[in-house]
């Protein structure tokens, strides 16, 4: 919430029920909080809690890019119908994350003949969501019974592609370009006739979510390349999935290039240190963005830091070992915690010291809390 809900309104209900298409308080929040903003001729950004959907009207019907979280489906179709009564011709999913792909059911109920297009990697992604429902519920802090349990719980694309797909809808060209970024099924949509680009999560208006410790692999270097590729198209309208749109081409280019430079800087620092054989924790501690990038308004730290992004690169290029010798085959945490507590004079003494340290060094105090907990999780203090 402090970070701004990914650039939009925040709903605690929706945040805790992102898969919950039958959770009425979340549905009510989405309807109440969703707004529609015109982004150009027959173009709108639909701002839902946490995430946006993009709506483009053509002579052949509507094109919808991304469909929000599951509870937002009814709000999205209501917002669409507030500006156009044309049938939905095409639904494009920029990637399979829950906040971009789970409101699709409401649009299909409205326009059952709409084609649904996504990159081919969304299929194994959705299959993993079914396979790992309990794990996802844990890491995403969601009710397990709301996670998809079978294929019938998801709306699957009617058409997929591998690299690039060019569509003509209502006499207009839509270019869907796959590039790895936040996911391996990520794509952006370029509409050359309107000089408009829908970027999915490639641009978020802050240092992007590319170093998330609870998520599967994300692709820092490819992300940077994509930002430069999109900047070279010279778009004049930015249609983002998070935050506000931009209609000044110069600002769009600057923001895209600045993000590319930031990701390139983190990548170069990390890889250079890896090649020098520097221990991983020291690599992470050393990562800093150049001052002119760190202070840029579109690179604010709201969700992950430059150090977190370095961790994702280390995950991509190296194994699970952290370079600490004893962590190759470590003693169980309970044994370590008990030994440290004993050295401290008992768990009570460890807890007293942790409460003192937390006033000045919360990170170190958190280690102490872990040691005490692992030593005896039933201890009342």
Which characteristics define this entry?
381 residues; Metallo-beta-lactamase, Chain A; Alkyl_sulf_dimr; RibonucZ/Hydroxyglut_hydro; protein dimerization activity; 15 helices; single chain; 12 strands; seven-stranded mixed beta sheet; 3 domains; five-stranded mixed beta sheet; Bact_Alkyl/Aryl-Sulfatase; alpha/beta
Description:
- This protein folds into 3 domains: 12-178, 4-Layer Sandwich (Metallo-beta-lactamase, Chain A), CATH 3.60.15.10; 192-232 and 245-326, no CATH class; 331-375, no CATH class.
- The strands form 2 sheets. The chain has a 7-stranded mixed sheet, with helices on one face. A 5-stranded mixed sheet has the order 8-9-10-11-12, with no helix packed on it.
- It has 15 helices and 12 strands.
- The chain has 381 residues and is α/β, with parallel strands linked by helices.
- The chain is globular and about 75 Å long.
- 39% of the residues lie in helices and 16% in strands.
């Amino acid at each position: 919430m402090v970070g701004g809900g990914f650039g939009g309104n925040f709903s605690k209900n929706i945040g805790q029920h992102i898969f919950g298409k039958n959770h009425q308080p979340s549905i009510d929040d989405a309807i109440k909080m969703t707004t529609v903003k015109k982004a150009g001729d027959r173009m709108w950004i639909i701002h839902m809690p946490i995430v946006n959907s993009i709506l483009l009207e053509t002579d052949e019907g509507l094109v919808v890019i991304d469909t929000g979280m599951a509870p937002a489906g009814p709000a999205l179709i209501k917002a669409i119908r507030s500006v156009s009564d044309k049938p939905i011709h095409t639904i494009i999913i920029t990637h399979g994350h829950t906040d971009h792909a789970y409101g699709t059911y409401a649009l299909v109920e409205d326009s059952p003949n709409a084609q649904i297009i996504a990159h081919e990697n969304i299929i194994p992604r959705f299959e993993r969501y079914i396979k790992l429902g309990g794990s996802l519920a844990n890491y995403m802090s969601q009710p397990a019974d709301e996670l998809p349990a079978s294929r019938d719980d998801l709306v699957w694309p009617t058409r997929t592609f591998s690299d690039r797909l060019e569509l003509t809808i209502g006499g207009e060209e839509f270019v869907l370009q796959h590039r790895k970024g936040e996911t391996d099924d990520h794509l952006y949509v370029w509409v050359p006739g309107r000089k408009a680009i829908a970027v999915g999560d490639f641009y978020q208006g802050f240092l992007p979510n590319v170093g998330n410790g609870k998520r599967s692999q994300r692709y820092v270097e490819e992300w940077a390349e994509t930002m430069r590729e999109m900047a070279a198209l010279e778009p004049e309208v930015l249609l983002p999935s998070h935050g506000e749109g931009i209609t000044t081409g110069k600002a769009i280019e600057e923001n895209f290039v600045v993000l590319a430079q930031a990701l390139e800087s983190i990548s170069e620092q990390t890889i250079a240190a890896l090649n020098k054989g520097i221990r991983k924790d020291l690599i992470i501690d050393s990562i800093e963005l150049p001052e002119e990038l760190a202070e840029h308004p579109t690179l604010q730290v709201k969700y992950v830091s430059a150090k977190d992004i370095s961790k994702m690169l280390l995950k991509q290029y190296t194994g699970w070992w952290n370079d600490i010798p004893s962590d190759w085959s470590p003693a169980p945490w309970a044994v370590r915690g008990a030994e440290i507590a004993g050295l401290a004079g008992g768990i009570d003494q460890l807890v007293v010291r942790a409460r003192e340290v937390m006033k000045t060094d919360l990170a170190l105090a958190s280690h102490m809390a872990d040691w005490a907990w692992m030593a005896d999780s039933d201890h009342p203090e």
